[in-house]
């Protein structure tokens, strides 16, 4: 009987130790998640914010760039063709609009971003000057590697935790 009590006591001590390790791993996982969230939630520098705006302007201009490229590629560059486009009945050289064809008289939004994106960015930069920007912000270029490092650590800790939990369950010592 003493052997059973002793074995039971050892089993309970081992289970308590495994539970503590699981709690410690849970805390470590939460801590790494918090560190990861600090990276994703941390502000960026003004210069990098402006780069995001420039990238967005380029994205918004892309349909016009594609259309105008296709237009110039498909239109002959010969003197006679250019003269015909400039005539009273011609469509003109279609460099201001994103949509081509008879009756299209508006400047496409994507053309606006193509022609004026730098000016819009400059004006927005002036507005952004009134805000405080972190001088020691984590560079945007470094953030994906940091996030990957945290994700790898979370996966490792979670796997360790899951292994310990499986060990508890397989021994019939579920929490």
Per DSSP, the total helix count is 5
The shape, in one word, is: elongated
Radius of gyration (Å): 32 Å
Strand content: under 5%
Largest sheet: none
Oligomeric state of the chains?
A: single chain
Question: Structural class of the helix and strand makeup?
Answer: mainly alpha
The counted number of beta strands is 0
Describe the overall structure.
The chain is mostly helical and 175 residues long. The protein is 71% helix and 0% strand. It has five helices and no strands. The longest helix has 40 residues, at 2-41. It starts with a helix and ends in a 5-residue tail after the last helix.
Give the key terms:
mainly alpha; 175 residues; 2 domains; 5 helices
Please sum up the structure shown.
The chain has helices at 2-41, 46-74, 79-86, 109-128, 143-170. With 175 residues, the protein is an all-alpha fold.
Write the layout of secondary structure elements.
Elements: H1 2-41, H2 46-74, H3 79-86, H4 109-128, H5 143-170
Helix pairs in contact: 1-5, 2-4
